[in-house]
Design a protein that fits this description.
heterodimer; A: mainly alpha; MetI-like fold; 14 helices; B: alpha/beta; Rossmann fold; CBS-domain; 2 domains; six-stranded mixed sheet; 19 helices; 16 strands; 22% strand; globular; binds adenosine-5'-triphosphate; binds magnesium ion; ABC transmembrane type-1 domain-containing protein (chain A); transport (chain A)
Chain lengths: 308, 412
């Protein structure tokens, strides 16, 4: 005896109906339109990285690593990028890099304002929070199918899937950063007659910047971990290399792609962390937040490794 | 004199449905009673007071008595539940957010207990924050910020960050930030509460000096009655959200309204609260070359004093004691012969603790102004009586002090 004997719910039919018969026919132009800016940014970046010689790109990243992390990281960047080039994966790596930058850019453009907005009111946060929870718990494979139905296959749908997956941390940490700004500083800013914007720009945002940067770092790592999955729906780059390797049981090819992802992940992770530390002001609680995030950040790298 | 700030029947109740608490307060229920029955916290009840322009109004009370709540209502950081708060003619309690912002930008600023400096801004940018908010251009902003820092002695640290300064210096920056926009009213919520006692003294003295020149209208919050008495032109003592007494330092010390106030007054530092002026008597001098020894003795008997000062025209010439004059018998005697020319003197605003040494000479202390003109006389007994809190004690009958000749040279 089970409830199913009495009643079965055709849940899958409902979803099919919603997506196939309502969303797809009626909102197709809308979903198409969403892709336009993404494709634009992606193509521009892709063309840029294809145009810039490998040595110059490497030099720029090495300099950034030197400036924001240290000499060791600069050396690692040079060696790692040379290795990628020598295993003949440079163009794929640059495609992946373009995808990552595009995803993170859109995550920031969408996530930071949402984070600021939900930090202002508890009601907004009550609505947004469960949505973020769902976004983070639903396995990404689940929304690949509706994305394909709505957006088709290709780079842009891959990036949209990545954005959905990588968006929550930057919203969460922007919210956290803004909320954690000391109450007496808010009070002081208010006592001198700040408008909402002045308060945000002069006090809240600069003081939250460290935490927001930590969120950006996490978002970046999540975006990297989506590279392989996004390749399933037509995104190219290193993810495609890994998938092709898997499909052909070509261990060497898959590993090469994976190693490329890991090198890229380490370089980007350390540089963005360094950027975060360089900005804002050291306060104990923020520093602790940061350290705990650092640990989570490296575990994400671990996951990426497994994926590869 | 015009009242710069008028507070009329202001109430603040924390919690939902605060009206409930107001009706209960009207029925005479107490703060505790209301809290236990409704869960509403009465922060401030029925506060009314006027603050004159250029006056330091001190609100003193124990932790939780509602001081911070009160002062935050004055600039609208906390909206009052009912009542009026009038700055000039604007009611802070009933105005639009835009008006409130304008009032905060133009008229009223605040100094915070824990400084509340912006850690990501330099000292100059902190001091210039209010100007930035008002849209003052960077050059003028910097000039005015540095000028305000100069007033608190920190101009040299303009480009440091707050974390590089000591607590006392940080609060000076807080004060400079409050002064930079040149507001008319300055709210200070326990500004020296987080500083150690020595620095606190220093800051109190500096505030007094600064105030002499700036003449701001200041609302100063403290839980330290000594501080209140030292700084306050007028002092309000607060308990459970209510004012129990409002008055000058002297009124509060000499006439505490109830046991609560009396308990505070019991352990104040009288030596720092009272000045020579507070305990001085009429000078009633005798005049050199005009009054005789007999005149002087008669005068002392009438005034019930042991000694009188002798003036030569406007200037103090010396002091004669009853004992010395009496020692000469009935022979007519020139005052100049019996006069002691080494005598203790003090300024009118000298604090009593500065008079200990002078008072122990046994001679009355001459209170003189900057031209050495005699403006009063302080009997040693009066100093000690005031210090011990027995100022109303009847003056002792004259009995000649011993060894007047051993008087140490005065501070003159
Ligand atoms: N936001 C709030 N919500 C509820 N109750 C509050 C709130 N702020 C203050 N109170 C209550 O109002 C009363 C007065 O608090 P207030 O902070 O004004 O006291 P205070 O005199 O400044 O004390 P302290 O010397 O500790 O700063 C206290 O009972 C406090 O618990
Ligand atoms: Mg307080």
């Amino acid at each position: 005896m089970s409830p199913a004997d009495l009643l079965t719910i055709p849940f899958d039919d409902w979803v099919n109906f919603l997506v196939r018969d309502i969303l797809v026919p009626n909102f197709r132009p809308f979903f198409r339109a969403i892709q336009v800016p993404i494709t634009g940014v992606l193509n521009a970046l892709d063309a840029f990285f294809a145009f810039v010689p490998m040595l110059i790109t490497t030099a720029v990243f090495a300099l950034l690593a030197w400036r924001y992390v240290g000499r060791g990281m600069a050396i690692f960047t040079v060696v790692g990028f040379f290795f990628i080039d020598m295993i003949e994966l440079w163009p794929e790596t640059m495609t992946t890099l373009s995808m990552i930058i595009t995803s993170v850019l859109f995550c920031t453009v969408i996530g930071v304002p949402i984070g600021i907005l939900v930090a202002r009111g508890d009601r907004a946060w009550k609505i947004v929070r469960p949505i973020l929870d769902v976004m983070q718990t639903v396995p990404s494979f689940v929304y690949l199918v509706p994305i394909v139905m709505l957006f088709g296959v290709g780079m842009a749908p891959g990036i949209i899937a990545t954005i959905i997956f990588a968006l929550p941390p930057i919203i969460r940490l922007t919210n956290l950063g803004i909320r954690n700004v000391r109450g007496d500083l808010i009070e002081a800013a208010e006592a001198f007659g700040s408008t909402t914007w002045q308060m945000l720009w002069e006090v809240q945002f600069p003081l939250a910047l460290r935490t927001i940067m930590a969120g950006l770092n996490q978002t970046l790592m999540l975006a990297l971990s989506m590279v392989v999955i996004a390749a399933l729906i037509g995104a190219g780059g290193l993810g495609l290399v890994v998938n092709t390797g898997l499909g052909r049981l070509d261990v060497g090819g898959a590993t090469a792609g994976g190693v490329g992802i890991v090198i890229l992940a380490i370089v980007l992770d350390r540089i963005t962390q360094g950027l975060g530390e360089d900005n804002g002001v050291a306060t104990m609680s923020l520093r602790q937040t940061f350290l705990s995030l650092f640990r989570r950040g490296s575990s994400t790298v671990g996951e990426t490794k497994k994926a590869g | 004199m015009t009242a710069k700030l008028r507070v009329q029947n202001v109430y603040k109740v924390f919690g939902d449905a605060p009206q409930e608490a107001l009706t209960r307060l009207e029925k005479g229920e107490s703060k505790e009673q209301i809290f236990s029955e409704t869960g509403l916290t009465v922060g401030v009840q029925d506060a009314s007071f006027d603050v004159e322009e250029g006056e330091i109004f001190v609100v003193m009370g124990l932790s939780g008595s509602g001081k911070s709540t009160l002062v935050r209502m004055l600039n609208g950081l906390i909206p009052p539940t009912s009542g009026h708060i009038l700055i000039d003619d604007d009611d802070v309690a009933n105005c639009t957010p835009e008006q409130l912002r304008e009032i905060r930008r133009q008229k009223i600023t605040m100094v915070f207990q824990h400084f509340a400096l912006f850690p990501h801004k330099t000292v100059a940018d902190n001091a210039g924050y209010g100007l930035r908010i008002k849209g003052v251009n960077p050059k003028e902003r910097r000039e005015r910020a540095v000028k305000a820092l100069g007033q608190v002695g920190l101009a040299a640290h303009a480009d440091s960050f707050p974390s590089e300064l000591s607590g006392g210096m940080q609060q000076r920056v807080g004060l400079a930030r409050g002064l930079a926009t040149d507001p008319q009213i300055l709210l200070m919520d326990e500004p020296f509460g987080a500083l150690d006692p020595l620095i606190r003294r220093e800051m109190q003295d500096e505030l007094i000096v600064l105030q002499r020149q700036l003449k701001k209208t200041i609302i100063f919050i403290t839980h330290d009655l000594n501080e209140a008495l030292i700084l306050g032109d007028k002092i309000a003592i607060m308990k459970d959200g209510q004012f129990v007494q409002v008055g000058t330092a002297q009124e509060i010390v000499s006439n505490p309204a109830d046991d609560y106030v009396a308990a505070f007054v019991a352990d104040i530092d009288r030596g720092r609260v009272f000045t020579a002026d507070d305990v001085s008597n009429e000078p009633a001098p005798v005049k050199l070359g005009q009054d005789t020894a007999q005149d002087a003795m008669r005068s002392m008997e009438e005034l019930n004093r042991n000694a009188l000062y002798v003036v030569d025209g406007d200037q103090v010439a010396g002091v004669v004691t009853y004992r010395d004059l009496a020692g000469a018998g009935d022979q007519p005697q020139d005052l100049a012969d019996a006069m002691v020319t080494e005598y203790p003197t003090a300024d009118g605003d000298a604090q009593l603790h500065e008079l200990y040494a002078a008072a122990s000479s046994g001679l009355p202390i001459a209170v003189t102004d900057e031209n050495n003109k005699l403006v009063g006389v302080v009997e040693p007994e009066a100093v000690f009586a005031q210090l011990s809190g027995e100022e109303s004690a009847a003056p002792e009958p004259p009995n000649a002090p011993d060894e007047t000749g051993a008087t140490k040279p005065g501070a003159a």
